[in-house]
């Protein structure tokens, strides 16, 4: 049975994030973007990650730079210590694509999360956004989900010179903005009224390093760009072909605790991920956990921050 979505108000969440020193645009409350999602795609199109209603390309409005992070947030966030006794967990799914290859899109996984009302965060690479515009727009328009920056082409950030390092960060911000502008020009989005687009953040407000690897220079560059660096506390290991759904589920269920951040994949490079989520989601709910986006998790308590990627 699909559960009703529970989420803090956008105003309250934004205020909490600002208190943390994170200039993050809070995800819209559940239902705020449903008008665009329902108007722009049929249930079948959402299930398959396809679409038909396209608009002429539009130039995105210039993005306002996010303010640099304060010193106390310039590290790698691995989990959060929630205030109080609420059991919160953030499921995150990477959408990466590197080199000359084209990765995929795990439509059955996203359909399951959507059907079950599971809030989640997707860390998308700019190259993936460009090669998968329709699934990207569907994720963008869905109030259950938020999209974070996962670099442009999934390069190892260690040792990257400042110029390509900046391009890897800024390119994905710009590609997201271009896609958002394209969605805003579609007749279906125009029919939903301005409030629908207002619920979609103007740009990603979180970052995840490719491979979880960084150095002091890249950590500083991401912080200067105003993007909290999100790592994880639970590794599913879903890229391993030999690992089945039961092993993925055990990895999550054996390690979960309030404030955990789980890393998995939705780019077709995760094996048995959707099947594993069908085991994990009902069991975590039975244990009293509530699924939140990473931004919501950050607003719920004190981030656990490491100052190096190898910690």
Describe this structure in a few short sentences.
The protein is of the alpha/beta class.
SSE blueprint:
Elements (H helix, E strand, L loop, with lengths): L9 H10 L14 H7 L2 H6 L27 E7 L5 E8 L11 H9 L4 E5 L1 H6 L1 H9 L3 E5 L12 H23 L2 H6 L1 H5 L17 H9 L4 E2 L3 E2 L9 H11 L4 E6 L7 H14 L3 E2 L2 H5 L2 E6 L5
Parallel strand pairs: 1-5, 2-3, 2-7, 2-8, 3-4, 6-7
Antiparallel strand pairs: 1-9
Helix pairs in contact: 4-12, 7-10, 11-12
List keywords for this structure.
311 residues; alpha/beta; 14% strand
Report on this model:
With 311 residues, the chain is an alpha/beta fold. Helices cover 39% and strands 14% of the residues. It has helices at 10-19, 34-40, 43-48, 107-115, 126-131, 133-141, 162-184, 187-192, 194-198, 216-224, 245-255, 273-286, 294-298, and strands at residues 76-82, 88-95, 120-124, 145-149, 229-230, 234-235, 260-265, 290-291, 301-306. The model is unreliable at 1-16 and 24-32 (pLDDT under 50).
Largest sheet: 6 strands, parallel
Instruction: Detail the poorly predicted runs.
Output: 1-16, 24-32
Determine the fraction of residues in helical runs and give it as a percent range: 25-40%
Mean model confidence by pLDDT:
89
Overall SS class: alpha/beta
Distance between the termini: 40 Å
Q: Count helical runs.
A: 13
Strand content: 5-15%
Which geometry do the CA atoms define?
Answer: globular
User: How many beta-strand segments?
Assistant: 9
Order of helices and strands: HHHEEHEHHEHHHHEEHEHEHE
Radius of gyration: 18 Å
């Amino acid at each position: 049975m699909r559960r009703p979505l529970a989420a803090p108000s956008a105003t309250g969440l934004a205020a909490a994030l600002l208190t943390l020193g994170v200039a993050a645009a809070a995800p819209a409350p559940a239902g705020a973007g449903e008008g665009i999602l329902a108007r722009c795609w049929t249930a079948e199109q959402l299930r398959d990650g396809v679409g038909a209603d396209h608009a002429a390309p539009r130039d995105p409005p210039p993005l306002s730079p996010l303010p640099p992070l304060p010193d106390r947030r310039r590290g790698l966030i691995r989990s959060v210590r929630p205030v109080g006794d609420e059991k919160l967990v953030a499921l995150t799914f990477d959408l990466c694509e590197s080199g000359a290859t084209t990765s995929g899109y795990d439509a059955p996984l996203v359909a399951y999360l959507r059907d079950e009302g599971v809030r989640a965060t997707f860390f998308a690479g700019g190259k993936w956004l460009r090669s998968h515009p329709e699934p990207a727009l569907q994720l963008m328009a869905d109030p259950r989900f938020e999209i974070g920056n996962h670099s442009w082409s999934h390069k190892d950030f260690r040792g990257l010179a400042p110029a390509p390092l900046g391009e890897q960060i800024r390119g994905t911000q710009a590609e997201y903005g271009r896609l958002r502008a394209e969605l805003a020009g579609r007749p279906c989005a125009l029919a939903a009224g301005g409030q629908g687009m207002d619920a979609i953040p103007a740009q990603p407000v979180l970052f995840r390093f490719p491979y979880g690897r960084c150095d002091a220079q890249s950590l500083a560059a991401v912080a200067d760009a105003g993007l909290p660096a999100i790592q994880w506390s639970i590794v599913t290991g879903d890229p391993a072909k030999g690992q089945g759904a039961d092993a993925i589920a055990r990895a999550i269920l054996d390690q979960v605790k309030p404030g955990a951040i789980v890393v998995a994949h939705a780019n077709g490079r995760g094996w048995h991920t959707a099947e594993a989520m069908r085991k994990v989601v009902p069991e975590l709910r039975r244990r009293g956990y509530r699924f939140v986006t990473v931004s919501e998790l950050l607003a719920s308590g004190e981030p656990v921050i490491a100052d190096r990627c190898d910690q």
